[in-house]
Specification:
Length: 122
């Protein structure tokens, strides 16, 4: 999309990317896809872009993180699937999230330090 821009517009966008946060870049990507979809819809071009938009950020440290993701079906229409998936998360420790598998820190086995003995003066 950016490569199709004319003149200095491409350079301006690429220069701005250096100063954007991941969230802002995700918002920009969403806006560019949405803009392309609307442009194709209201022009004589073939409508090749449309529908719900998925947005993810990929980094070296965090890997793939979904920012916005479409749902493929309505949960209310598929209660058996939802309950089955929820049950598998409760029973399979490999599928649990980090929050549910955090362990409490072990109690310390060290004895507390005794207060120093007071010196008597005679």
């Amino acid at each position: 999309m950016i490569s199709g821009l004319k003149g200095g517009a491409q350079k301006n966008i690429l220069d701005v990317l250096d100063f954007m946060s991941k969230k802002e870049m995700a918002e920009m990507a969403h806006a560019l896809v949405e803009f392309t979809s609307k442009k194709r819809r209201f022009s004589t071009d073939q409508e090749t872009v449309g529908g719900p938009i998925d947005v993810a950020v990929i980094t070296r440290n965090e890997g793939l993180v979904w920012i916005q993701r479409k749902h493929y079906f309505d949960r209310e229409l598929n209660p058996n699937f939802v309950s089955r998936v929820a049950a598998s998360f409760r029973t399979d420790p490999k599928r649990r999230t980090n929050a549910s598998t955090k362990r409490k820190p072990a109690a310390s086995t060290k004895k507390p330090k005794a207060a120093p003995a007071k010196r008597r003066t005679l």
